[in-house]
Amino acid sequence: MHKIVIKGGVPLKGEVRISGAKNAVLPLLFATLLSDGQSEICNVPALRDIDTAVALLNTLGATTERVGDCCQVNASAIQSIEAPYDLVRTMRASVLVLGPLLARCGHARVSLPGGCAIGARPIDQHLKGFEALGAKITLDHGYVEAHAERLRGAHIIFDMPTVGGTENLLMATALAEGESIIENAAREPEIVQLAEALISMGAKIEGAGTARIQIEGVSSLNPLKISVMPDRIEAGTFMIASAMTGGDILVRGAQQRDQEALLQKMAEAGVMIHPERDGLRVVGPEKLMPVDIRTSTFPGFPTDMQAQFMAMMAIADGTSRVSENVFENRFMHVCELQRLGADISIDGHSAQIHGVKQLLGAPVMATDLRASACLILAGLAADNTTEVSRIYHLDRGYERIEEKLAGLGACIERVLE
Ligand code: EPZ
Questions:
Q1: Which protein residue has the closest C-alpha to ligand 1 atom 9?
Q2: What is the pLDDT of residues 3-21, one digit of tens each?
Q3: Is 374 annotated in the active site?
Q4: Order of strands, edge to edge, in the sheet holding 63-67?
């Protein structure tokens, strides 16, 4: 087991290149199952979740090869339609094989993902969509069994915008017979890239990025060749690192249009953000101002940036409120921040943060992916030394984060625990 050790107080300087977006790569990898040719996805980061997704593709019979920063996938021979529990429980996004397998093979058997640290995260909306397309869904000893001779287009209305549900149903309807409409669709940039990818494979899709998506099913799809968009959450994490350390960094690959809500809230906190040719320059202020946030689906404030923003508010000059409206249990970083001297109180879905002058370095424990990032950020701003353990959570979604931060001058290293 490893931990990350940080000596805080160093203002970050220089530039960092953002890696490909984890939450864009995962659906794109599973979209390769929709075609019987050789696909290639480039700008793929080296992350544990990507390794899990590739292992799942191999389990299903696809051949895969890592060539530089590209993943080549040949799904011409699918030998299994089962996504086993040990892979799905490692990475719940494995449920995204349901749509492609149903559409391509007419059958899928996928372990129910179960809950995770941040919430129950059911997939009822995914299953409701598949049933609307004519699939027969049964639950069998912890597995979802789905059968459909041929999926038929339908009018699907989600109870709430769901990223994974929208992605699963986009992939399923692309090969369904006739027209489908997805209402109350999620609008995240990663969904737009998935739709662009499917269109490049021959799918007929209109409206991705809006709450109403129209799909005209086709009989087959060509292989995929695409380069993945930069990771807007990694970009936001580095932007907050600069803001919290009084730094001045260029975040190469950060795209204004993908994170307007975050940028507006950072500007309100006094952070100076300057668009540059291929990224955003972020300058931390002498004093951070308190700002209230409420997470919501895109284009609202992203839940995946809530913990990181809270770390910044922990050292703001005043009181702020954070309301987590997407997941039911996404405040586990709070008690770890309190170990670092943060003054935070929780009341149901909202937290009140009284900024302190200085966080105090201490050993803390990561509980989930974004909580890990929040603790790294707090350690960068704290005095003395902060040790973050259980960083396997971090490695699921951040590529070489300690090397990138060290490249910006941070005093940080990964050591054996
Ligand atoms: C995706 O998860 C992301 N993961 C999450 O990022 C992100 O936090 C989330 O979207 C919200 O933006 C990937 O893209 C791999 P949802 P997903 O379905 O698809 C409820 C990270 O840190 N819901 O949009 O699982 C659900 O419980 C991860 O990178 C149902 O009730 O999220 C949640 O409260 C964490 N029934 C809300 O909707 C369903 O059938 C949003 O979930 C589906 C969802």
A1: 163
A2: 999 999 999 999 999 999 9
A3: no
A4: 63-67, 70-74, 38-42, 225-227
Any idea which architecture 2-19+230-416 has in CATH?
Answer: Alpha-beta prism (3.65)
- Nearest-CA neighbor of 374 among 357, 350, 397, 356? 397
Q: Which of 19, 162, 327 to mutate to test the pocket of ligand 1 (most atoms within 8 A of CB)?
A: 162
Cα of 199 from ligand 1 centre, angstroms: 24
**pLDDT tens, residue by residue, 375-408:** 999 999 999 999 999 999 999 999 999 999 999 9
Going by CA atoms, what residue is nearest to atom 21 of ligand 1?
A: 304
Full-model pTM? 0.97
pLDDT single digits (tens) 62-98: 999 999 999 999 999 999 999 999 999 989 999 999 9
Question: If you write DSSP's letter for every residue of 185-254 in order, what string do you get?
Answer: ----HHHHHHHHHHHHTT-EEE-BTBSEEEEE--S-BPPPEEEPPB-HHHHHHHHHHHHHTT-EEEEET-
**DSSP secondary structure code for residue 409 in this structure:** T
For residue 331 and ligand 1, the question of a CB distance below 6 A is answered with no
Domain boundaries, the chain: 2-19+230-416, 22-227
Any idea which architecture 22-227 has in CATH? Alpha-beta prism (3.65)
Distance of CA 217 to the CA centre of its chain: 28
Residue 191 C-alpha from the chain's centroid: 11
